[in-house]
Amino acid sequence: MLIALVLVALNLRLAITSAAALLTLLTESGALNSATVVLIPAIPTAVFAVAGVSTARLAGRWGVERTVAVGLAVLSIGLLIRAIPSPWIVVLGTVVATGGLAVVNILLPAVVRAHFGRSIGTVTTVYSTAMSLGAATAAATAVPVAAAVGSPTVGLAAWAVPALIALAVWAVVMPIARPTAPAAPAAEAGARRVRAAYPAGTWLLASFFAIQSLLSYVVMGWLPTIATDAGLSPERAGLLLGITMAVGVPATVLIMPLARGAGRMRVGFAVVGSATTAGVLGLLFA
């Protein structure tokens, strides 16, 4: 199950960073135009918002593990669709792929709680590290892969291969894995009747995560284009995004211990916020 979880996590940013690294080449080849090129970096955050509303219902009906399998299948289909060099087809494939990606991304913490209840912190660090490594690899190698296959859109679709591998392994592990039980209907009805007040600071915390997610997707979606506009080659711009994502690996390992206790969390939030501010200001002045 841990191997399957890591393989799934490796795919959670591939669709985003590979497309970001190839935006310039996709535009130059005509696979994207001025109307669609701005949609590709924007779609993931919009789809995540929709998935956040609907994923819990799907998981309650199908079970978490089966819903993850469906999400991986949808991700693979969306990535394959992007092989067709037509602007609106590439957009459609991105919507489909990030829809599957969003479902899986939302449910992985539930998988960790269900199957690794005694090692949640360690396993979360492992899959977060895998996620960063996958994002870095796709960003750094998307342009060389596209050059090797002779087409930026086929290069986009090539990232369906690791998604299909993860789906195959997940499908093997899933039947023997301990299933996560959906909430009982009576309990759900009671929860609807008596909704507890949110703890103090809930909306402040939600706002922090919203802004942090926005900044993360701006960097993932636009950094290579910013770099090529500044004079870097597409290959080096993709490598720059890969380095940015790779920094997340040691950062995750260092920051996770700060998740134990409210006082430490405040320090962690301050560190993350300060680092993000310094990085954006660095790009501005550069």
Q: What is the number of helices?
A: 13
Uncertain ranges: 179-191
| Percentage of residues in DSSP E strands | under 5%
Shape: globular
User: Largest sheet, described in full?
Assistant: none
Helicity, as a percent range: over 70%
Number of strands: 0
Radius of gyration: 19 Å
Distance between the ends: 44 Å
What string gives the helices and strands in order?
HHHHHHHHHHHHH
What is the topology?
Blueprint: H1 2-10, H2 14-29, H3 39-62, H4 64-81, H5 87-115, H6 120-149, H7 152-157, H8 160-173, H9 185-193, H10 202-229, H11 234-246, H12 248-255, H13 262-285
Helix pairs in contact: 1-6, 1-8, 2-6, 2-10, 2-11, 3-4, 3-5, 3-10, 4-5, 4-8, 6-11, 6-12, 10-11
Account of the protein in words:
The protein is an all-alpha fold and 286 residues long. It is built from 13 helices and no strands. It has helices at residues 2-10, 14-29, 39-62, 64-81, 87-115, 120-149, 152-157, 160-173, 185-193, 202-229, 234-246, 248-255, 262-285. α2 packs parallel to α6 (120-149) and α4 (64-81) packs antiparallel against α5.
